[in-house]
Amino acid sequence: MTKYLFVLTSSPKDFFCEQTLVAIASLRVHNPGAFVTVLTDDRTAATLIEGNRAALKDAVDELKVLELDEKLSPMLRSRYLKTVMRNVIDGDFLYMDSDIAIVGDLSIPKEWNGIYAVLDFHTNLSKAINRKKILNNAKMLGFSPILNDEIFNGGVMFASDTPEVRAFFEKWHELWLYCVSKNFPYDMASLAEANFKFNYITQKMPGEWNCQMAYAREFIPNGKVFHFFGSRIINTCGREVPESMNVFLPKILRKDFYTDLKNIPVKVNADKSITINEYYDDVIAHAKEAFLYQTEHAGKFGADIIRSYAFAKSLGFVYKKLPFVLPLLSLIGKIL
Prior knowledge:
By secondary structure, the chain is α/β, with parallel strands linked by helices. The protein has helices spanning 16-30, 42-45, 51-59, 74-84, 131-141, 163-181, 188-197, 255-259, 278-285, 287-306, 309-321, 326-335, and strands at 3-8, 35-41, 62-66, 93-96, 100-102, 115-119, 152-159, 203-204, 211-212, 225-227, 267-268, 274-275. The strands form three sheets. It has a seven-stranded mixed beta sheet with strand order 3-2-1-4-7-6-8, with helices on both faces. It has a three-stranded mixed beta sheet with strand order 5-10-9. Strand 11 (267-268) and strand 12 form a beta hairpin. The mean pLDDT is 97.
């Protein structure tokens, strides 16, 4: 049995718990009966006691809690859990970040054995837009220059429960701790270096398993996991969002979709499926259609632009500082 694993570090002040709840709800829509595990820290676990934070515990099949150093920041706690997850969770698992929507069948192919992930940006490092930054970071840390021209996105990873894979994660954690000592707390450089030290053990997972939205045009129609990244979730600042804006801002990418969920009752059914209300259930069940709608109305190239980080950042700025531009965008949405 494969476990579907999420890592959660959260407080009532953020919306990571709600994000994870939405991700699990989408998983159960398309994969009924999936065994869901959440790995969390003691500080987070202490807050999962009421409302929808308590509902999260009911929605999972396994909750694993690690006691961590109180001095660790939320970011460090999250990365700590992610790099040790293989060695504290038993059984094969498919790990997924929480800034995702599961939109398809995640049955694991029988031939998968080892570690699988999707290339970052869906391309080789030599063609990646951040190639120079990645290589500079590797050089700064004294790491390999990534000789196989592959760097993997850690947002979706399959990991078998084998001694070799456990050793790989042990090395990843060790390298991440080294990065932290160098004031570089991110986990991708250490993941790439662990892959180098294990003779490039990580195998390429089909792009449909981790559709990194701005770069996944060819994978979206048959996508299984849509990874939209937290940086593309837009704060609409309480402003009304007309239907014509759906082409620019799918509902699942609106910050209030998660923050409002703090005050909306969530029902966890006997089969562990999640029911919220008609609006939420519809958005969660039809996340793929929302992104296909972008392509249909804006075209393939236009949809690429709309899904980009630059567009998301600009749209967030408009909502916060230039709301008088919004009627024009709404009109363009109607035309499209």
